[in-house]
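Following up on my earlier thread - several people asked me to post the actual chain instead of describing it. Fair enough. Here it is, all 158 residues.
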Amino acid sequence: MATAQHNLSEYDFSSIPDASNMCFGIVVAEWNQDITGALLDGAVKTLEKHGALPENIHVKTVPGSFELVYGAHQMVLHGGYDAVIILGSVIRGETPHFDYICQGVTYGIARLNTISEIPIIYGLLTTNDKQQALDRCGGKYGNKGDECAIDAIKMAKF
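Reply from S.P.:
Thanks for posting it. Predicted structure:
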């Protein structure tokens, strides 16, 4: 469903499992930090709202979105997490760099999901401009970080 017809922060509260016994890893890109910081804030608040203890939410940063794959892989290998969330933002520019980064991260996370014992939640915003990103990190379409946290809880319970 298109984001324009769905608020990323809206969900049925009663359908979310209790996260009090779960541990989460979050890998967040530093690039576009104003956006990724808002995504992180949304994810952490939503995890805590559903019972996750602050000491069971572990955040690591990587320089950019391409490095999210490596960061997620390291968390899977060494973390003892029930789920890992990646958060990043790639905004289209004038060169094909956008396409390579988006494809690389998407492929990398998909591959990790097929070989890993735990789910890795895809929270990469891929937008045409900064306003679209702002709309999706706490703006008029809600916060993708909220959605990723809910997905992480549900998939950890899966």
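The chain has a mean pLDDT of 94. That should answer part of your original question.
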